[in-house]
Each structure stands twice: as C-alpha cells, then as structure tokens.
Queue: 2 jobs
Job 1
Amino acid sequence: MQKITILIHCEDQKAIIASVTNYIASIDGNIIYLDQHVDADENVFFMRLECEFSAKNWDLEAIKADFREKLANPFKMSWEIYTQEYKPRMALFVSKYDHCLYDILGRYSAGELPLEIPLIVSNHEDLKVVADRFSIPFHHVPFTKEIKEEGEKQQIDLLQQYEIDFIVLARYMQIIPPKLIALYKNKIINIHHSFLPAFPGAKPYHSAFKRGVKIIGATSHYVTEGLDEGPIIEQDIARVSHSHSIEDFIMKGRDLERMVLARAIKLHAERKTMVYDNKTVVFS
Amino acid sequence: MQKITILIHCEDQKAIIASVTNYIASIDGNIIYLDQHVDADENVFFMRLECEFSAKNWDLEAIKADFREKLANPFKMSWEIYTQEYKPRMALFVSKYDHCLYDILGRYSAGELPLEIPLIVSNHEDLKVVADRFSIPFHHVPFTKEIKEEGEKQQIDLLQQYEIDFIVLARYMQIIPPKLIALYKNKIINIHHSFLPAFPGAKPYHSAFKRGVKIIGATSHYVTEGLDEGPIIEQDIARVSHSHSIEDFIMKGRDLERMVLARAIKLHAERKTMVYDNKTVVFS
Amino acid sequence: MQKITILIHCEDQKAIIASVTNYIASIDGNIIYLDQHVDADENVFFMRLECEFSAKNWDLEAIKADFREKLANPFKMSWEIYTQEYKPRMALFVSKYDHCLYDILGRYSAGELPLEIPLIVSNHEDLKVVADRFSIPFHHVPFTKEIKEEGEKQQIDLLQQYEIDFIVLARYMQIIPPKLIALYKNKIINIHHSFLPAFPGAKPYHSAFKRGVKIIGATSHYVTEGLDEGPIIEQDIARVSHSHSIEDFIMKGRDLERMVLARAIKLHAERKTMVYDNKTVVFS
Amino acid sequence: MQKITILIHCEDQKAIIASVTNYIASIDGNIIYLDQHVDADENVFFMRLECEFSAKNWDLEAIKADFREKLANPFKMSWEIYTQEYKPRMALFVSKYDHCLYDILGRYSAGELPLEIPLIVSNHEDLKVVADRFSIPFHHVPFTKEIKEEGEKQQIDLLQQYEIDFIVLARYMQIIPPKLIALYKNKIINIHHSFLPAFPGAKPYHSAFKRGVKIIGATSHYVTEGLDEGPIIEQDIARVSHSHSIEDFIMKGRDLERMVLARAIKLHAERKTMVYDNKTVVFS
C-alpha cells in the first residue's frame, strides 16, 4: 500500500469536501483520515486527508497533475501532497543548553520521530560531544553581530548541502537572520521558555518568578521576524508555588521545553500543521 | 438559517464521505462541521456533520426521506438527524448529595446547557428545597429493594409523562432497574467518583486513600447492567498527596464530579457522542 | 477541643521555629499542621500553624498576650491568630455575569465554604433574582464615573453595616476605588479571565483568540491599584485549538473562572494565604 | 557550608518539632527547609529537615551520636541523616525498551540528576549500544525461570561490587527475586505503564484501549512482592480519545513513562520519599 497526506487551504466554497472525496474515490483511494476546519471570520477552508492506494494504481505524478487540474485550479487551492515514505530532513540549531538536544536525539534514536537529522549547527563547540555520541554531523558556525553575514552564508550553505527541509532551534540563543527566515518560511520551529504572550524575550523564568505566577509554561512556535511573535504550535504548563526558587522554575521549565518542542517537531514532521494569518491549524 | 446535525455509523466502505457530502451539496446545504472516525479493528465508520440550510430550501421530512433512500439504505447506515432548535429533555435523578445538583441547575439557569430540565426525581425528600429554589418539578419516588417494582413503575410513568429524552444520575445512590436501562439505552448518564476501571462500586475515595494513589479521578459513563462498566464519556483527575485526608479526597472529588458530569451532559445534549461496542466516539 | 490557626512573618532569624513550637508545647497545645517558608532573596520567614487545645486549657486572650510578649515582640513578627469557630464574612460584588455567582452560592449552600455570605452588592439589578433564590440580601449600588463618590460611600457603609471581612469580585465590571482598596488591603479577591500577566484589561478571550494561543487561563488575585497587577492567588488553564471560536473560549473560560475563583475564596477563608512584596505564599 | 537532610518518623508525640528544632539551634544549624506530616489514623509523625552548618562547627559523627542520644532514643525514632555531598549510586535494569533509558541517561548527562549511575544491567544485549554511547558499564545478566538462581546471584554480586544504593527498573521485563527485594527494601523503583490500581500486570495499554478510557496513565512505585502493588511514588496521565489506536496509546504512554520515572528517581535521590504502611510520604 502507498499512503499520502494531502493538505489544502482555500477560500471557503460549497462542495469542496464532496469534490475532493469524489476524486479520491474515483482513483480507488481509500480515505483513512479526514479532518477539516473553516475559519468563519476569514472565510478560509482547511483540510487534511490521509489516503491509501494499492500499489498497482499508484502514480504520484499523475495524481498530482490530476489534482491540480480538477481540484486545485477550479477551487484556487493552496495544496501539498506528501508521501509517507519520504522522511523530512531536519537541522538542529543549538548553543550551549543540552537538555532539548539530548531529548530530541534520544527520541530520534528510539525511533519515535518520522524524520532524518543529518545536521547539527551550533554557534559554540560545547555540544559537539553530544552530537558525536549520536554520530550526527556537527558544524560549528560562529555567529555574532560582527560576522553576521558570514555566519548566515555558512548556515544557508550547510542547509542546502544537507538538503534540509526544516529547522529546529533547540534553545539556540541567536537571532535568526531575516533572509534565513524568508527561505524557511513556517519551517523554523523555536521553543520559548514561557507561556507566550507572557514574558517574551530574555529571562522569562526570572520575570515569572518576580511576578509571582502560580503556573509557568513553554511555547513552541514558527519563527517570524517579530521576536517570539510567530504562529504558536504547542504550549504546555507546570504548577509552581511560593516554595520554588528561580532555579526550581528553570528545572521544571526544562521538562516543559523538552516536551513542548518534541510535540511540535512531531506535529510538523507528520504534516499536521498549517499556518494562516499568524496562527496555526493543528490537526489531531 | 436552519441547522441540523447528522450522526452516522455503518460498516466502513469506499465513498461514504463523498456520497454524503455530495448529497448535502445537491440540496444546497452548507457543511459547517464534519468529523469522521474509522474503527479499523471493527471496520466501522462513524461520522458527525453539521449543515446549514437557508430557510427557503428547508423541508426536514423530505431530507430524511431522501437520506434514507439515497444513503442510509444503500450503505446500511445507522443514522440520526437532529434539528438545532429542539432541545432534548433531561430528567435528573438525585438522592442526598447536592453538589452536582447545584452545579447543573446553576449552569442551566446561566444558560450554558442546550437542554430542558422538566423533572427531578429522588428517592429522598431532602433535595426538594433545591429544586424549589430553581422552580423545577420535584417528585419523590421511594425506591428500596422491597418496593422496587412500584418504584420502577412510578419512574417510568414520570419519564413518559414529562417526555424525557435522557436521564442524568447526579449522585443517585440506587441501582437502575434493567427495564429502565433497556428503555433508555445509552441515554442514562452516571457520574462515578473514581478513575474507572479503578475503584468501581462503593466508597472509591476510601479505597483510593488506602492504596495511596497520587491522583484521584471521576468518570461519567452511560449506564449498562454491569455496575460502573458502561461506555465512558469523560474522565478527569486531580492530584492528591500524603497530606490529604479522606475528607480532602472527597472535597476535591466533588469538583471533579461536578466538572466531569457537566461536560458529559453537554456532550450528550449536543449530540457529540456515539456508542459502539461498549465504547464512545466523542466528537469535538 | 479548640483549634486555632497562627500566621507569622518576620525577618528570618535562627530559632524561630524552635521558639514557637516550644511555646505551643509549653501551654499543652498539639501542633496538627506546620508549614514554613523562607524567602531567601528577601530574607523573610513565613509560618502557618494549626494547633489544638483541650477546652480546659483554653484562654485565647491569654495566649494572644503571651504570644505578643514572648514571641512577636522579640522576633519583631507580623502575626495573626484565628479561631476555627469564627467564619469570615464575605461580600460578593457582581454585575451581570451570573456563572461565578451561581457557582459560589451553590458551593455555599452545599456547605463547602467555611464562611458567611451576608451581602451581595451590584451595580445592576439583573442578578437580584439569583440572590433571592438563595435568600441572600442584595443591594443595588449604582456606580458610574459620574456618581463614583456616592457609590463608594454606599459600598463602604454596607460593608461596615454587615461587618464584612473580605470582598469577592465575581466578575464585577467596575474599577474599585482606591479608598476601598486601602480599607480592604489584601482582602479583595478578583477573578481575571486570562492567564496573567498575559492579556490584562478588557476582552482577554478576544486577544487570546487573535494571538492563536493553544491554552487559555484564569487568574484570581488580590486587588491593588494597578489593574490586574495584584498578588496572584491561583491560576488554572484549559486547552484550546484552532477549532474553537471566541464563543468557545468564553464558554471554556467560564469553567476556569468558576474553579479558580472558588479555590481562591476557599484558600483565603481558610487563612492559607499570606501576601508579601506583591506575591502570595499559599500554604497547602 | 555543609548541608544535611534529616528524615524522621516515629509515633506522634508532643514536642517532637520543638525538640528537634531546639537541638538544631543548639548546634548553630540553620533550618532551611522543614516539612512534617502526621498520619492521624496511624498516629505516626514524619518530618524532613534540611539544615546548613558553617564548616567550622561541622562534625557529622558527633551530630549523629548526639541525635541518637538526645532525640532518636527518647522519641523512639526511625531516622536517617544524609549529607548533600554524597550522591547515591543507582543501578539501571533494562530489557529491550530504550525510551526510558535514553531519557534517564540524557538527564544524567545534562546534569539534572543528583546521583551516580555506575551500572546498567540487562537480561538482553540489545541496549549495550546505548550504554556505550554514554560510557556506562553494561552487564548482560541472562534471567529466565530456568537460570533464576544464577541470575539472581550475578545481579547481587554486581550490585555489591558497584556499591549500589538503589535500583531503577526502566521497563525491565522480569520479575525481581524476593531475595533482591528484601536486600533493597523500598529501594527498587519500577515504572508501570498504567494508572494503578487500574490495569496491573501485562499489556495495560491494550486493556485501557479495550475499556475505552479517556485518560491513560503511568505509575512509579517501590517494588514489593505483590505485582504492581508497592507504595506509589508518582503518577501522571494523558488524555486519549476514540481517534487513538493502541499504537497511539503506547506512544503517548512513552512520554508518561519517561516523565513519571524521572520524577520518581529525582524524588528518591533527593531523599524526599518515606514509606509507611505501603504508602509514601513525598515531601515537596
């Protein structure tokens, strides 16, 4: 069996679901998952389908051509078709914090993530030892204000050389240059260690402690030019109390960061996220 | 605009979604919600749709006749169509605990529940004062082993007289007779004060305390003949610690019971639950 | 048996716990609960004790005098002693939203809250019907910019007449005058319908929806002059997704508001909160 | 500064707290944490203290002798004193599942766990590669019914050779022999992949799926001779729905298992757990 995932969004119109499901039926596909969402305010329709085809009917390029002509053009759809067998290629950007890196590489090694990790990039050498333990190529790309352009160029060269599909900032402590954001639009995932939009920017645990909150959080989001303002993919929280120090907040936060980032990576790699109007649709 | 909800389940077959959505499109309906589920083990297909029709096209009986002929019969569907304007009529069965009763009547009075409550039945007189506060008819129907048949008859008479669609046991401390269960199959909702299947039967908070659990729970389920064994609709939990007494468990549990029962009532009244094979499909 | 609760805070010093527990032992008291906290940054010590005395040893005024002389003065303590038999008197301020009001009165009637509610104050007449159902005195005190001083005077007169110990704003939609805040310092509890410090001020659910958050929250806090900036008592959250409308946020939020406000009321009435440096210590 | 943790339990009596805190004050110790609990049903008192001493007053053996004579003997206490500088030595027992192992070794390498891991024992060779990545000695000790005694002997020899303080079963799929349980009483931590006492024994995710629960859980507990019946240390849960397959349960469960086991390990290593009457007191 061949399995594909189809993502669609377009202006909401009558008979979209009927037309798409008719088409799948007409080529003997079997729909094993369908979820759709209408943003009533914006009048936008979103759909995610998973279909199976028996191998003998299988011609991906023919399906794509058909889909374009019969569905995408008439309905003016934005659309993508992914095969299950292709695993997206993810680059990890890290600095000095190692907890998210260990967590991601542990999950990857345990076979939990449907993706490839051909590349780790860092502005420091500290975490090379971790990359080595898991036998993943590690590239030290220094990045400071002074050598921003050189760093950016090196990063982009590496991403192209390794044919990277999306980037994960696993507590990478540098601003991403606009050019890279533009090249990987809605394909760079960051983990911020607060419950956004509370406490954007630096030292959110310190701010949370000072404010005396009873719950802390972490937020994974796609990177846009506005700092910590991109579309939110996933959030989670943990209870704290007066008895916890800033160090306790940071330690509890590490668990949140690991978990929330891992979920966002999985959702993205499984093609379950769509971005519209600085918000995400996250299919289950 | 007229709005209907359609629930379908049948053996999984090709082209069900296409056929149903085609039909809705053919009568100028607009699908505003569609969710479906395939139980791959049992090969059963479930779907819930909400559709809107402009008033001029609106003929519910014609739609039902059409649906039966064009869809339900060919696909051998079990199906139901509900209009949004009809509010299901709910009977509350209570004994002496008042916390769930206050919560439900408070929500009802605050306009949060899409249903009517024409009737409260109790095997004690204690809670008549609560029913009176909210001006809801209260009937005392004694129910003990000795007068079981008489009690059962009175209950069924009241349910018929008040044209009750479904029953909620808001901490009602009596076994429901099999005849009543059969009459209201998958239409009697109970709240059990444990995280089922842990601690079924009597005094679950005492058992939880004795076992030293770190989390307690509550479970709402449809009533079947097996005690606390019916299809689970909703569950939730609360953290406890060694510092909590049985009384603390009970007090924390009251919040769980209120919340979990209120959610189950809302899901049922909004036609978001389907039962199959002693499990529920709960659409979002 | 007589039971008292003692709350203490003072500069952190050696031997505070030993001195206090020695004293309790010396008068044949039995400590049934002791929790303490040291704010290491501010060097402040906090303690909460519950003690039991057999009736024959019981002389509250003598204990207070002793405590002042032997402990409070030498250690320069801020301190309070409460008897369990006195129930604090709470005023409810409401406007038009009824869900928190129903919830609080339901819990009160069900015997869950260790307090008295002798008074409901509102700037509208709408909720008189709810107060009447529960037979609680309701006073309509109009309050607008134009008649602010007159409103404030009426409020304070009522609070004094009914000997009110603390005030709960159950979705009361007016600013509290500074004079009232000063009179009831750390004794006015508000419920804000967001996860503070995110989304302070008006229409937080609308802002949360626009930002595309995946979790919404509610926050109970003591009222200070800064809008939504007072010491946080309790917070909780609920998951939301792209599939939820603003109306869904509001409906889910009602459950959060009810729950978080009820918990804060209970903590305050049980003397489990202490305020320091715009933060709370909340004993379990 | 030297820091010690004191754990005490004994029959509840008057003046215990006063006596202990007096003693600490008398030797110029500074109490930085004190929590106590009274099991009113069993009349047992539990206390955990952390104290700091300036280096010049520091004589651990003298403190222990004093403590025994002045406090432990008169009050008939069970007691332990730990220094912060000693890190307990933990052995990991694994079989073929690698997700908990990766998680623990990742946290260990990231410096989050206050313990040493000198030894990994497995009844299979599969996970040697993981141990090697983290440079931790791995011993293959075959263990089947037939060679139970030989296996048990090898295990105990290794535990003694490596001076192991406590054992963690990170999804180790073999029964622990009674002799080993007796040697490490309340010092063997297991992770069970259900919300105990629901679904003890084999294949709990399959049972949970069949029952149609809406929440799954994981439980860490000390190992006793009764299967999955030992004192519970920590539990947590995750929501599931009809849309999740058994494979989804298992995948979501892996996150629970990792998290709940990591928390239990940390609590044990930080001396925050006490066992009494098949239940745990877990200090915060």
Note: Chain C touches chain D through 17 residues (CB under 8 Å).
Job 2
Amino acid sequence: MAQVDWILKNAFVVCLDEGFLIYPRGAVAVRGGDILAVGEEGDITARFQARDTMDCGGRTLLPGLVNAHTHVPMTLLRGVADDRRLDVWLLGYVMPVEREFVSPDVVRLGTLLACAEMIRGGVTCFADMYYFEESVAAATAEAGLRALCAQTVLKFPTPDAASYEDSLASARDFIGRWRGHPLIVPSVAPHAPYTCTPEILRSCTDLAIEFDVPLHTHLSETSQEVEQCREAYGMPVIPWIKKAGLLEAKVLAAHCVHVDEGEIRTLSHARAGVAHNPSSNLKLASGFAPVRTMLEAGLNVGIGTDGPSSNNDLDMFEEMRLASFIAKGHSGDPTALPAKTVLAMATRLGARAMHLGEVTGSIEAGKRADLILVDLEGVHNRPHFERDPEGVYSRIVYAAKASDVTDVMVEGRWLLRDRKLLTIDLDPLLKEADDFARRVDAFLVTREGSLLSKLVAIEGAVQEESYEVQVKVRLPDPSAAETALASRLEILRRAHYHEFDTYFTFADESQDRLRYREDEFVEDDGSVSQVRYRLTLTGPAAEGEYEHSVLLSRSRFIAPATHSLRFYREYFKPEGEINIAKDRRRWLVHFRGEEFFVNLDRLTSPALEGAFLEVKSRTWSRRDAEEKARLIVDLLRELGATHAEPVTADYPNIMKDTGRS
Amino acid sequence: MAQVDWILKNAFVVCLDEGFLIYPRGAVAVRGGDILAVGEEGDITARFQARDTMDCGGRTLLPGLVNAHTHVPMTLLRGVADDRRLDVWLLGYVMPVEREFVSPDVVRLGTLLACAEMIRGGVTCFADMYYFEESVAAATAEAGLRALCAQTVLKFPTPDAASYEDSLASARDFIGRWRGHPLIVPSVAPHAPYTCTPEILRSCTDLAIEFDVPLHTHLSETSQEVEQCREAYGMPVIPWIKKAGLLEAKVLAAHCVHVDEGEIRTLSHARAGVAHNPSSNLKLASGFAPVRTMLEAGLNVGIGTDGPSSNNDLDMFEEMRLASFIAKGHSGDPTALPAKTVLAMATRLGARAMHLGEVTGSIEAGKRADLILVDLEGVHNRPHFERDPEGVYSRIVYAAKASDVTDVMVEGRWLLRDRKLLTIDLDPLLKEADDFARRVDAFLVTREGSLLSKLVAIEGAVQEESYEVQVKVRLPDPSAAETALASRLEILRRAHYHEFDTYFTFADESQDRLRYREDEFVEDDGSVSQVRYRLTLTGPAAEGEYEHSVLLSRSRFIAPATHSLRFYREYFKPEGEINIAKDRRRWLVHFRGEEFFVNLDRLTSPALEGAFLEVKSRTWSRRDAEEKARLIVDLLRELGATHAEPVTADYPNIMKDTGRS
C-alpha cells in the first residue's frame, strides 16, 4: 500500500473536474502538496496507508473556491463611502485615502485580514491587483493561500510609484524575485486601457511574455470606457487592446461587461481568461456581463468578488448565487447559468482564467491539494433531495453560506480546522485595522471639506496629465516670435481666444487653487463663435528647474463648469479672488518629433504692456517630460526669445507682484 | 423609577423610526411585550429599574427584520427542482408534489423549520400564504414569531380544498378563530388574478373587509401575466383588480414587477402595501421591479424572500443586499436604493406594507418588543469607519450575514440567545424533514416519467377548468336539433371543423390519456381556412351522475402541438393508438343565463351512421357546475333530444365497444 500524508474520508466528494464526478461516500488521498487520488472511500482506503486520517462526517468536500479578481488590501477600505456616484467615490474618497495611507505595512495588514476572511469562506486561491504587490505576495504566502499577485501600473502617480516607469521597474523586480514560488505567481497589471498609455500596455505585455507569467487587467467594465475608447481610437476596447499587443500575453481580464460577440471571439482566440464580478458590477452600476455568451464561446470565465470596497466583502458563496441570479434575471431565462455551471466557474474555470488550470480548481489526481469541507446540514439547507446526486450543486450555490465552511487545506496544509484559523492570529490584526480606520476617519473629516471633494461632488472632474513642462518669458515686442510661428515652425493647430479667468484663493495650507475660466473662441474675422466654461483645480506643485524651463509635477483636475460664477463663489467660499482677462493666441507646434503648445498672451484686464510667451507640454511620463524640458530651450531660441525676461510666477502671482489685482 | 422586565444596554441602537435615530451607546426598556423607551444608555438606566438587564457588549440592536412575503411550508421543497423552465418547475414538480404530500402535519413541520431558520437570521415577522394556513398559524405562534397568515384561495382544486368554495369557507373559519391573537393576524389570499375568477376576488375582498384583516396576494409578477390580463380584460393587472374590487381591502401585494407609473399611483391611492422579492424575481427570471419609483410614489415597499423553493432560503440579509444591488445595476445609478433605505424597507416599511406599521418594524416606545442583536465585529465586517454613524447601514446591508445575528426577541420573549434557539427543538424536526424528502424523492422518481412531466418538458401546457358538465346522445336523425339551433336558441358563436384525433393509450394504471388533434377550420363555402394542432392530457375523472348529464372533475392540460405526430409517438411511447376523424359543427349557446357548447358530430373515419350531439360546459366552480348539470336537461329538451340514446363513453371507448378501432 502506498504511503500518503492524509486521507480525508466519509465525505460527499464533488470533484468539479471535466466529467463532474461525484462520490457520495468518497475519499481523497493527499501526499505533500498534491492530490494523489480521489474515489470511492473503500477504494481509497484499500489503496493507501495514511499518516493522518480525517473523518469528514458526511460533509461535502469541494475543490477550494477561486476568487478570480480582487484587490485584497482594500479590505481596509470596506464601507468607507458607499452609495456614492462613481466619480465621487473614486476621486473624492478612495484615491485620496490611498494616496495618503497606502504603504507596505498597510498592504500587509489588509492582505492578512482578507486572507482570514477568504479562508473562513472557503477561498483557496485568488487573483489580486494592487500597489506594493510584493507585500500582498508575502502576506498571502504567510497565510498559506495561493494567489496570482499583479503589480499595478497606471499612467498616474500611485502610492508606490511617482511615475509609471518606476512601477514597471518594480514589477520587473517583483516578478524576478517571486517566480517559481509554490503558492505565489507574480504578475503585472496594467490597470486598464483608459488609465494606461499604449506604451504602458506594450511594456507590461513584454514583461509578462519575458517571464512567462499571466497579465492581469480590467477590460470593458463600463459603457463609458467603451465610448471613450471609440472616441479616442475609433474602435471598442477589445480590438484596441489587441492592436496594442496586450493579447499576446496570457491575459486575465476582469469584468468584460461591455463586449460584443466579435470581441468575445477575439478574447477566445487569444485564450484570455475572464473574471466576472457580479456584486461589483451591480453595486457600481457598471452593467450586466454577457456571461452565457462568453461561456458558449469557450472562454474560461471565473468569478471574482472585486475589492471589498465595491462589494463589501470577499464572500464567494454570495458571488456564486448572484452570478446565477442575475444571469437568469437579465436574460429572462430561469435555466440560465445553472448551479452546476456556476460552481464550475467558481472553481475549475476560475483557475483556468488565471492560467492556473493545471494546478488547482478541481479534485483530480495530480493537482495541488486545495480542498474545502462544507457543512450543508444547517437548518437553512435542509432537507436534501437525493434522487439526483447533482442536487448538491443547487444546495451549494443557492442555499449554502460562507459560514458553512468548516475546514480548508491549501497545498496539503491545513489553514482552517473546525472553523479555527491556523495560520493567522486575528485579534491583533483587527485592533490594527481599527486604528487604521480611526486615522482614515480623521483624515476624511478634514478631507470632505477639500476643494477636490467639493468639486467632484457637483461636477464630473477628470484628472489631467501630472507632468507639466513649461517656460514663460515676457516680450516687450512679440513680433519675432510671431514671424517664427507664421513661417519657420511646423504648426499642427492654431486657435484664438478671449480668456476671462477668476482664480479662487484659499487661506488654508493645502495651496490648492481653483480657476473658473470662460474661453471665447475668436474666428479669423474677429467674431466669437462659441464660449466654453471650465473649472480647473491644481494642487501644490513639486518643481524641477532646467536651464530655462520648469518641470512641474502636480495633480490637476478639469471639470466642465455647468453653474454660474455666483454659484461657485457661494459653494466654494474662497478667501479671495483674482480676475484676469487676456487675449490668447495658441499654436500646437511640432518640433523635433515632439509636440508643444505655444501661447502668446496680451493681458487686457488688468492691462499690461507687451506680451507673454508661454511654451508648455503635458505628459504622463517622467522620462518624456525630462526630454521635453531639454528640447524647450531650442524651441525658445527658434522663437527668438532666448534673451527675454523669464517669468516664473503664474498670472495671479504676477498680478499680486505688480500690485494690480 | 418605573419598573420594567428588561433593559438591553451597551448597544449600538439603530431605531429605523421615521427620524432614523441612532444611539451609539444606547439602551431599550421592555415591559411585557412592549417597548417602553429607547434612548441613551445613561438616560434609560436612570429612568427604569429592570427585573433583568442584558449587556449587549456593543453589538448592534435593530428592530427585527420583516419578511414581507413568503410561503414558509415550502421550506420542505427547498431545491427540489432548480434551474428548470417555469412551467416545468411548477406543473412538473411543485404542484404534483404538493397535491400528493401537503397535509396539516407537513405544513406544521415546514413552518417550524422555517421559523427556526428565520429566528436564526433575525426575522421576527413574516407574511405567509399557503394551504392549511391554520397549521402555519399554530406552528408560528408556538415558535413565538409574529406573522400575517393568509389562507390561499385558487380556482384550481388545492391540497386543502376540492373547490374554491371550500377554500373560502375554511378561510372564514380560520379568520374567525384567530382574529385578535397577539402574534398572528389571520388573513385570506386570493392567489393571483390569473388563478382566481372575478367572483373569487370579490368574495375574498368581502371577507377581508368583514373581519377588517389584510388581504395577501400576488400581483403583476411576470410580463406574461400582464399580457394575459390585457388579452382577457383589455387592461393591465392593477386596473383590472381595481375594477374587480380588490383594492377596497387592505392589500399586501407581492411582486408588482410589471407595473407602470399609473398603476403605481393606483396602488398608492389605495394604500396597498408591496412586497419586493429580489431573489425570486431573478431566480424565476420574472423581471426587475420598479422599486425606486414605487418608493417615490409613497408606497410602503417591504422586502420578502418568497418561498424557499424559489430562493432557496429565508435569508433577509441576502435579500437586502440584492435589493440594493439590482436597483443600482438595473438603473445604472450606484446611488439607487442606498443601504439606509433598504434597511428601512426590511423593517418599518415592510411592517407597514403588511398593515402592521403600528405594531412592529422600528424601535419606538409603544411598539411591540421585536428586537434583534447583530454582531458586526466579524472579520468580514471590519474595520468600521465611524466618522458618520450612518455607516452602520452599509455594514448591515452590504457585509453582515444572517449568521451574525446572536439574539432575537419577539413580543418581549427571547427566541434566540447567544445563537441558541429557545422555542424550537430542531433535531427531531430535521429528521422528520429528511424522511419527508426521501418520500418525495421516491414519488418523483416515478413521477418524472409521467405523461404530464413529459408534456410540460417540451410544450407550454396550460391547466383547464377542472369541472366539466357534459351529456352525449346518439341521434339517428339530427334534423330536430339542427332546426332548434338554427331558429329557437340564442347563438353566441358558431364554428365548423374537420377534426382528426389520435389518442395515445398507456398500459399503466394512471389512466392518463393524451390526444393529438388537428382541427381544420371549415368556412361556409366548404374551404379550409386554417389548421390548429393541439395536445390534450386528461387525468382520470371523478364522476357524478345527474338526470341525463355527467359532472366530471378531472385535471386537463392543453398545449399547442408544435411537433409532428411521429415525434410525439416516439417521445411518449404509447402502448396503443386510436384514430378518429369527424365532422364537427359547434355552437356556443346562451341558455337561461348560462353558456353551453353544443357539438354535432358525424364520424367519418371509422364511419358511423347518424350523429352525436354533445352539450358541454367547463367551469372552475363546483356550485356553478351543479347548476349547469341541472339546466342541461332542459337544453336537451329544447334540442329535441330527450329521448335519444344516451352515450356515456367517449369516442375512443365507443370505437373500442363497436370493435371498429
């Protein structure tokens, strides 16, 4: 008789393999981290001798559940701001709190709490995406769970990187260090097509291919995302990311809510995995994913909870039930997504979507021993109809609860026995989490009065490129520059405005500034063709000085101004106001392979002699910004402005300095 | 200091009253079954002296949850046949099992199990509708829960009544006996407009008004129901039931999925309560109820689980979460149905929808002491953000679970302490339930091969009126009858068919018979204008003989025949076949205030001399059937057929008897 470490016997074994085998009185033999055999109890106990035997008391033995998409550290932001508009939630709460608080320690704390919750709820494997992902990986390995850990890359500065170049570098380091770990698959996560540049998508793809690891991303979550993609690139999201090369990697795509049949075929040909997140898609009102069509197209569609701040927990039982219910409700067909299919999605198909199909997701000899025991004997799940053994799928999906999970094993190691956590000491973590929440509360009490929070509460603000290269000079006579712009330089676009700006100033130390601007578009004949009203909120800038130019890094939000100046004055209650009117001519110049904006401004109120020449460029890339800062000097020379008086102040400060405001 | 029975102190008290009061360190004073006071802990302990004090350890004290619509005995049918088409589920499984098994004892068992599950999950009050409702009431009172118990009335024979007249009589008895009970409000439930006749709706309304009790019903659950109502009555469901008088009663209407704004106003003016059942509406693919519009119109919209066979449990926490999520997902607005609103629906508004708003649904002095304690300190619900006390709503609705309920009090009596049931001895009940399930399994194994199950599995069968009055005579010369029909009788409609019938016969004892019929519609000029194909399944009949006529009571299902005779022959595998072709002329006759069908048939294959005269009428009412059975003799006399040879056999048996088949 072969020797094994564990025999789990007297179990109702539901294998969730391709053949959907069920052993009503079954057993599983485990050696090391592996499943050696599964079958009828009599057969298994006859073939193997076990160091330890566990009598499962007739409970149901399943492969561990696979949470195919989440952001586990966001456990610490559970319920921080629910029932808000999406932009208010994200820009007003989640992102400011993350910027202020997220650190390797906080990520570790959130991960351990999430692991505790998931172990208790029968999850043995999850796909994560967050910042400081190496801390997620370390805490997960310590808790004993299996995970795909993907380091987020975004075009914005993030809590763990000032630029996306930094993010990519740390993703590379992380993947290099963790590849080959028995529990952790390190990975990279270009956050989403709309938060990444084509260059980011390409770099992440190359990185994933180089190390042969999956790539985790969000695709087609909202209809707005699809519309923006069509506007920017003339095609919906999936063709666009295919064109950008992303599908060359082993992709795990979260959401795929707004994809048509052609896009589904594209994903299927690329063997991309999909993570369906029913709670998140409903709670954030993103829409109804075409799950049935994706499954019919042969896609591996798993189920994910998404982060606990859009759920608000990590309960895969709730997620399974919901996946089935909304598929039925939305299609009008009560046979859609039956319990059996849904449980396969939450196990085998989820593992395949994560490109871990060989490792976990079913009870089969040769896979890792990721197993859970579920008690289906509670009063909320009785009686059982047994004429069809497959009734067990209905009991699990429609009536079982996370709290019915009693025992959890991952890679042959017990993480939960009789509902007791074996790898995580919960109480000190909960205390730490409470302290964290107190600090966030205090921050938000102040923050909720911030300009940005007040802005996003009333208008749909959009974050702009964070790097800005600029130079400004005062020209008593701008004719040399005008000549250069009229004849020597390559002009891509030109415009002429009358700009009426009102700057709101505030006494507090944040140095945020809010500008209300009316832009009159002036035609060649001098007539005004249209007027645009915008609000711009800028945060304090970190500056870098170059020869003649300034490199600024700062947050900048633009929103359409749909209300009156009077309304904003009462709403934002500024300490002071500065009013400036100017005539601005603006050129988009192509210069040595880069694009720059050139403004030629004449201040009309308060009136100032001469003109100001500004050369500006904005970008998401720090490297790009540095390159442009160097080029700008040459462009200034072309404009005949090298020896002009440089001005470092912006217009409100020029007004202050000249005492004219 | 006033003396009270209980002070519950050191609780985070969430009152759910109109003002949504919250006492982060609060207390409640209870005397007898009543809440005497709620407030800050210091204030309550200063004002009252308690016989017993409970330290709630900081847990959250809520009014008990109100399950505004369910069928609790169906706990025993949990998971009996999931993921089926609606007609297959109802006609193939639920109704046959109910007909076979439902008894007062079974109802009592299912009710006690349901009460155990609901107590554990924090439900203190529910609205029920089932058969043998007096057994539901008795078991609920024994368990100590509060309930609106409504005796179902249907036009079909039910497990507890051979006719709706019997149902109405037992509803009257039940209400008379139970009115004034401290926990139970007895009530009547006309099942739904499409399963009731106008007379049933009127009688139930009168009964509810006479005893001043609410009336519980299903309204506008599916779009099919609305279409059928438009077809039958030329208007959607709500105007129709208003016309039928139903809204004169204090109505609790389950579902209201397919109602427009005008119908919502009608319900609102009638002060009808609505029970929203998100799980059931999704699982059965009924649709998305316009909950937000109903709330905005001032309707009291509660939340219900519906019966556990369409859910599959009685978990109001899941139901709350789902109510919020689908409202957000369906409207595309993440601010729709916020947690605070949803919790009010599951408590105060639900009680009002049940017309029990003065009694329960919030923690307020003067209401009954229906209270639950919930532990929000689990790892799946940490940390807590406390800057806004209303964050508690989000914790309860989005992350709390039924298993977080620790203590339950109803009418001042403890039903659950520290998660232990105090009024129900669960183990013997669970054993009984398992035995019940074994018997149902055995029944269904046989039943799944039945003709009806096989029929509904492929075609959309509809149940026909169960009472049939008929007489058949053989007329060597039908000219007297023809003359009467042409001149003396009032004819409402006439038609002429060639009918080609194939009867499938089966050897088993069930005596079910299946007929495949092709009806050629013959025009006045003898041409055939269209052909109709139908299947009719008739069960064995219970007969009552009258002077010349026969009163039959039997199940009869009609389905369109969308396949070929060859297909049905292979699918149903009959033992034998009888083929009959005939020429049928048919009149709908108005005679002494009643309507009768008169058929004059000439058999063409096998050919028989003379003609057969049939007089028939179908009805849902036994009283009506008896009245018609008496009238039929007079009609026969008018047709000059009193002395003709009466035939009691149907055509297949006539063929057998004459040896011609």
Note: Residues 65-356+423-442 of chain A form a domain with the TIM Barrel fold (CATH 3.20.20.140).
